């Protein structure tokens, strides 16, 4: 795919315009997120702090956490605004589902087996509850079969997903 500017290609992806998903830079970003998801999903009985740290790896958020509390209960309270995620979870890029007030609100709960294809921004408002087996796809494929079936380019276009505050998705959405 010579002649495609990778910076402009990624900008097109984020704007929801036609782009090429299999350029090396985007593939590397998906691989980074995939490996971070594996670490998160394999954490077992990790502490709340460890799970928050692992989630921050998934979403590539380098913001430091506040100092730990003296007890696990205190630490849980310190981290109460961080999203609570029960794995396993699958995320495409992570950087478009970041734990910031503008993207993933405070006091968000995500139950197990949820999938987020975040080629464009996925925003989840504060105090939102997401039940098991829910999937949120900002990723789409072109409706034009010529573009969709061109395996040499794999062109895609995507769209932003916004979920407001105080929403609930029970299961399998």
3D structure, described in words:
The protein is α/β, with parallel strands linked by helices and 173 residues long. The protein has a single domain (6-169), classed as UDP N-Acetylglucosamine Acyltransferase, domain 1. The protein is built from 5 helices and 12 strands. Strands 2-4-7-12 form a 4-stranded parallel β-sheet. The protein is globular, with a radius of gyration of 17 Å.
How would you briefly describe this protein structure?
The protein has about 170 residues and is of the alpha/beta class.
Terminal-residue CA separation: 36 Å
Order of secondary-structure elements: HEHHHEEEEEEEEHEEE
Report the CATH architecture. 3 Solenoid
How do the strands line up in the largest sheet? 2-4-7-12
Number of strands: 12
Individual helix count: 5
CATH superfamily: Hexapeptide repeat proteins
* Range of strand content: 15-25%
**What does the main sheet amount to?**
4 strands, parallel
Secondary structure: elements and pairs:
Layout: H1 6-15, E1 19-20, H2 24-41, H3 48-58, H4 72-78, E2 84-85, E3 89-91, E4 109-110, E5 114-117, E6 122-124, E7 129-130, E8 135-137, E9 139-140, H5 145-148, E10 155-158, E11 161-163, E12 168-169
Parallel strand pairs: 2-4, 3-5, 4-7, 5-8, 6-11, 7-12
Antiparallel strand pairs: 1-10, 9-10
Quickly list its features:
173 residues, alpha/beta, UDP N-Acetylglucosamine Acyltransferase, domain 1, four-stranded parallel β-sheet, three-stranded antiparallel β-sheet, 5 helices, 29% helix
